[in-house]
Fold:
Amino acid sequence: MRRHGVPNRALSVRTLLHLPRLARPNGTVARQQVIAELNRNAARLQRDQQAIEDLIPKDKYLLPDLRFVRLGNSDADQVFSRLHYLRSARAGSVNFALVDPVNRLPVTLCSVSPLEWMRVGRQLQAQFGVPLGAAWDVSRVYSFDVAPVNAISFLLSKVRQVIRREIPSVQLLTTAVDPNLGFIGSSYRAANWQQWMSIEARPYLYVDGIYASPRQLRTRYGGANLTELRRTHSGTRFEQSRAKLLDSVIYCCRMRGETAPVPLEDQRRLRR
Structure:
């Protein structure tokens, strides 16, 4: 369904990402502020969609009709930089997609790259025997509203097959699921991934009212320390969320054999 001329799901995720900027410490937000954020994010999402209109699929197809491909960086970067809630592509990634059989437009896509999150990497090594450098990360996933049911889990299964065959040094795939944005990991569980650990939430960061990741801040401004950034960029408004956020969940999938579930009592909560 669509409201404001944009897909409901995409608008919901973007708005949830920005509401913590306005939330009181107890997590509440005034109704009028929610409406204002919905309208603001809808307008930005409309502009982003218009900027890459030629890449947005319009027709629906059944899952067996879609084609699995390695997607070029140009198309993938445009989709992730405009439509993914982080509005950025991960540099150095390998991109895969399910494309429609007629126009070859991406319907569901993801990017995979070597795991850079050393705290997760060290825990994988210590607890599960996965050597550093042997884990790769599904860093971006985006699915258009015309995608059929189970498109993401189907894509993940195809990606696992390709990486297992073409990059045999990779032993494990990981990803982080942020429940604050309404994600519950259902597509990963459907692809036989397992929840192995969680990691402490850190405040969301914003530049002039727009979310920016620490990586984006370091790229744009040379650092992610808000106190320092406020001192050196006095004309720019740097903020962070104040309400308590839920921890992110780390899902994993072994490249060979079954991925064993980890009992809750054995799942570690990693600190930032």
